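Before going further, learn to read the protein records used in this course. The integers have meaning only within a learned vocabulary of local backbone shapes. The record below shows the convention in full.
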Amino acid sequence: MTVAAKPTKLGTAEFIAQCRDVLIPVPGTTLAYFSAIPLDTPDQDHLINDPITAFPPGLSTIIPNLRLVYVPYLERTEPASKDAPNVVISFQQPPQEIRRLSAFETVGEEAYLFISAGFGEDTDIHDVLFGALAQQIVSSSNAAFVAPFHKLVATELRNRVHGEVGDIAWDLKKSLLGLQSDEQKRSDLLKSYLNQALRDTVALYLHGLCCDIDLRANPKQLASKYIRKRLLVIKDHLPPPEGVGLFPSDLPG
């Protein structure tokens, strides 16, 4: 008798169909999660309990019915068509050049955020999680959220404030500050920079609600007084859950 081998790769739609009925709901929220990797108690706290309990309540309005799914690996593939997904779940480590750290897919009224848990100890899985969440928040946010942040960062640009929260935004900012002509190119570059700066700041905010913010001093780092102003703008739009503070002064005692 021939025993069919278990597949080593699954498309995201196929994986969702298999895990949908075993998602674990988070009491008191619209969130649910599933892990395709074994989780001991410390892992459960680090990957599930600590982040989810620190999610701002307003997150459920921006990304309704979020499903957080941890998988061994994510792999980029060549799409069969323009409508076909180009990411699959892999149970074997793919080559570095085609690995993805996260993927996002909407199915009906559910939003699935896939996080690769097998990328190695050189990458903080919280950075991956909060960075992926921040990207979706920025993509889904309205002008009421975006405009105050853009206004704040525009003031930084006029004052030629040095540094950024993330490396990509810093490279975009340097290019923007060095561009003297070509208004169309400047407009496109400004849009990319503002989106990246917002994404990085939202990721830092989410990380700060879950854990202590670790800002390593380096020549590219935005000064802490500017970071604080940015975080306060994000906090106004996405207040933390009750009992969770971003700064020590937010907590009683």
